[in-house]
Design brief:
With 373 residues, the protein is an alpha/beta fold. The protein has helices at residues 18-32, 65-69, 107-110, 113-129, 138-147, 197-203, 219-230, 244-253, 268-275, 288-292, 304-319, 322-332, 337-350, 360-372; strands at residues 3-8, 40-46, 59-62, 79-82, 97-102, 132-135, 155-157, 182-186, 209-213, 236-240, 256-259, 280-282, 297-298.
Length: 373
């Protein structure tokens, strides 16, 4: 009998969110690889508009609010996979193997102490009823072991993987109206991305433009835009959200990719830039040294002169070393969606299932922990 597996793709509702794109990658992989999953009975937990979007060889369960408050209404599954730590829906059945993927514990550093402590307790409640824990970087695994009780359950490493966009179609954005060489960065314009440290650096590099792309509806984005206006910084531009084709053009045509982020569970933009053979200049915070490895250049601090010197010392030499550029591209191409999904499909096949039978106490305990999360 095939194992019944549910994969939670509810974040398809928010495609401008990293988890939304991750959900889309999962769905598209399943759509395009029916032969890889024919030995599994897979159900995708999705918003109503995505019912049927990923082929007829899988099942669908509509994401309804009633399931959040009454999780005992869920159909039975052997395995339930929550692909992010932000678990809003989960089966509490005592026969279901619950797999939880942790991307980061960034809230420990982003929020004030009281709020972080409460969120950590909620995260602990979910991990208490998890049967298998996976993580997207060794840094995240260290964070888990340092801050949470895994009850002896090992955290399994599975690096993020995506479809390579290096050969995807491109469209030049309208906001690029100059032939000047430019640097590029992308991400939600939130304080944790630390984009403001690039402003003073760019004052020292007047021959280049910098484009900061991504959702700019946040107060931090307004702060950056105000600084650009008040300080008359003429070579830095905040674009807002860009399309996938525009993103490809920006990666393909930028002189370098800059990523001063302070909190990342993985940091996939580093890998995306490397796919195009571009030099990456990054902070050395959280997971970024692990993911960038020897293929990125890391700032030791955010002093404008230091940041400028690192770029100047490595930009030309990078482009003069074609062998190294080839190594960078090969490294980036190792982070594939195929490798990532194969690891999970094998986990679904190999994880020990729970014995059938009813245990009311177990279900009540799971429900109690779920309500605390």
């Amino acid at each position: 009998m095939k194992r019944r597996v549910l994969i939670d793709l509810r974040y398809l509702e928010y495609l401008n969110n990293g988890f939304g794109q991750l959900s889309l990658n999962y769905g598209n992989y399943i759509k395009n690889n029916p032969d890889k999953i024919q030995d599994l009975d897979i159900t995708l937990f999705v918003p109503k508009e995505y019912i049927g979007a990923f082929g007829t060889h899988v099942n669908y369960l509509e994401c309804k609010r009633s399931y959040k408050w009454y999780p005992f209404l869920f159909p039975y599954f052997d395995i339930w996979h929550s692909i992010s730590q932000q678990v809003k829906y989960i089966s509490i059945g005592n026969r279901t193997v619950r797999i939880i993927t942790i991307h980061d514990l960034n809230f420990l550093y982003e929020r004030e102490a009281g709020k972080a402590k409460r969120k950590l307790k909620r995260q602990q409640s979910i991990l208490d009823i998890a049967d298998v824990i996976t993580a997207i970087s060794n840094f995240t695994i260290k964070e888990l072991n340092a801050n949470l009780n895994l009850h002896g359950k090992p955290a399994i490493l599975n690096y993020v993987g995506e479809h390579s966009i290096a050969k995807d179609p491109e469209v030049k954005p309208d906001f690029v109206n100059s032939d000047r060489q430019f640097f590029f960065t992308i991400g939600q314009v939130l304080e944790k991305k630390n984009f403001h440290v690039l402003l003073d650096m760019m004052k020292l590099i007047p021959d280049y433009n910098l484009y900061i792309c991504g959702d700019n509806k946040f107060e931090y984005a307004k702060y950056i835009e105000k600084r650009i206006a008040d300080e008359d910084i003429k070579n830095v531009f905040v674009s807002g959200i860009i399309s996938p084709a525009e993103k490809v053009w920006m990666y393909r045509n930028c002189k370098a990719f800059l990523f001063p982020s302070k909190f990342e569970g993985f940091g996939y933009p580093l890998i995306e830039a490397m796919l195009f053979g571009k030099p990456v200049f990054s902070s050395n915070y959280t997971s970024l040294p692990e993911i960038g490895d020897k293929y990125a250049f890391f700032w030791d601090n955010f002093e404008p002169e230091h940041m400028k010197k690192l770029i100047e010392a490595n930009l030309d030499s990078f482009y003069n070393n074609q062998q190294f550029i080839g190594e960078v591209i090969n490294y980036a191409n190792s982070f594939t969606i195929e490798r990532h999904m194969d690891a999970y499909l094998n986990l679904y096949r190999q994880v020990e299932l729970k014995r059938r039978g009813k245990n009311l106490f177990s279900c009540i305990y799971n429900y109690y922990k779920y309500l605390k999360s």
